[in-house]
# Entry
Amino acid sequence: MSPDILYSTLATPILEESTDLDERLATPWKVIVLNDPVNLMNYVVMVFRKVFGYNDTKATKHMMEVHELGKSVLWVGEREQAENYAYQLQRWRLQTILEKDD
Amino acid sequence: MRTNYNAGACKQFWKKMIEFSLQVECHIIQAILPEMGKLFALSAKVEEFADLFPDLDDPELKESWNDGLKEEAKGDRNALARLLKSPRLPYGRVEVEEDDVDDLLRGLTEIRFTIRKTSLKSVADEELESGMPSLTSSKPEVRIGYFSYLLMAEIQERLIEEIV
# Structure
């Protein structure tokens, strides 16, 4: 197989795939914590402080949003980091989802 | 044989403990603990992570995600098992190694979720969140479940106060 043939058969799909991947990675993702009836308020505040490094005021504000509105957007940014945060929050048993920030 | 008592040799055996007494009558704790043992055995079966996965369309990621959470939860259950087996817990005394606190906090949360899904499944979320479920007409397992749920919360609250 000549190099030209190789290039003509493979170049297009690779380019499309990488464009899709770039777009997916470039789209910001939201890390959202949902309310639950089990976790204690001071537990949730502690987890937000530990996972995001938030101070007490900011962590309490997000906890109150979760409690009163049913959910709070804790962080927005690239997907890999969003997954990392979601995993840590779920490790602490907080109900967490990811959504595209459209 | 000589024992080396210098600071370096002893350091590895010295672990900081967090200790406190619960504001709960001992006879209540002693009545609850056998039930806690049963709930603990149940928690590994009840607590599935599947419903926790973020809504992403990637089965391979979902599998490794859930496997990772399950594996790490073992440490949490071990910390909770150590607490429940502690000889001083029936007398209201909690003693936890500082290194175990995070695991124990998560283990306590897990068993509270288990109690919620089993003994307290007939109790509404609003009643549970308000802390005032009507227990007078409830079955004994609901009442014991609720007191277990509160006891675990009390331990969690006190632990958080100690470390924050």
In short: Strands of chain B lie at 17-21, 93-97. Residues 68 and 143 of chain B are 35 Å apart (CA to CA). The helical segments of chain B are 7-11, 26-46, 59-85, 101-117, 125-130, 140-163. The radius of gyration of chain B is 19 Å.
